[in-house]
Specification:
Rossmann fold; about 220 residues; 3-stranded antiparallel sheet; 8 strands; globular; 9 helices
């Protein structure tokens, strides 16, 4: 399957993407993970992106599109891909459309995961992430804490609250989303690719996607 996952930060795009990859071997492509990896590795791209990310601002399109073009041509994308958190703006969506035509790739659909704001705030302020860029396992201090407080179950690295997951940064990210990313819903509706799922459980979102795909 070749999908775009839309939804505010904390809507559950990453969780849905991880579960979908297990169904048919599609790969999850999160620009956030790619960028955070580049920041921790200290690459030129990472250094350039770090300032934007710390402020909760969007990384410039020129950086993102270069990453995406390279990523979509990697062999593991042959089975399919799930774009998680990309595109984020109408110009990015237009550039992505051109890029997919250039690469001869056709999208199946864009899935809009619609979750209430209070649920998102609660999820993100209680979320913790493994600090190891090779692992990046996600925990929640309420619903899914690590077995040993502050330590990743999988690799033993420290578990941290990301700088962009404080309440202040989240409010800024949600404002940025509403202003720049929410219009993508209309864009993909016009393209005839949109389905909207009002659900807080990843299972309900996956069921809706499978029904639409006829699986």
């Amino acid at each position: 399957m070749k999908l775009i996952l839309l939804g505010a930060p904390g809507a559950g795009k990453g969780t849905v993407a991880k579960q979908l990859t297990q169904l048919d071997g599609s790969v999850q492509i999160s620009t956030g993970d790619i960028l955070r990896g580049a920041v921790q590795a200290g690459t030129d791209l990472g250094k350039e992106a770090e300032g934007y990310m710390k402020r909760g601002d969007l990384v410039p399109d020129s950086l993102i599109m270069g990453i995406m073009e390279n990523r979509l041509q990697e062999p593991d994308c042959q089975k399919g891909f799930l774009l998680d958190g990309f595109p984020r703006t109408i110009p990015q969506a237009e550039e992505l459309k051109k890029l997919l035509v250039k690469l001869g790739i056709e999208l199946d659909m864009a899935v809009n995961i619609d979750v209430p704001r209070e649920v998102i705030l609660d999820r993100l302020t209680t979320r913790r992430t493994c600090s190891n860029s090779e692992c990046q396992a996600i925990y929640n201090v309420k619903s899914h804490p690590p077995k040993k407080e502050g330590v990743c179950d999988k690799c033993g690295s420290p578990v941290i609250q990301r700088e962009d997951e404080t309440e202040e940064a989240i409010s800024h990210r949600l404002e940025t989303y509403n202003e720049k990313t929410a219009p993508l819903i209309g864009f993909y509706e016009k393209e005839g690719l949109l389905i909207t799922v009002n659900a807080t459980s990843s299972e309900a979102v996956i069921d809706a996607i499978q029904k639409k795909l006829g699986k």
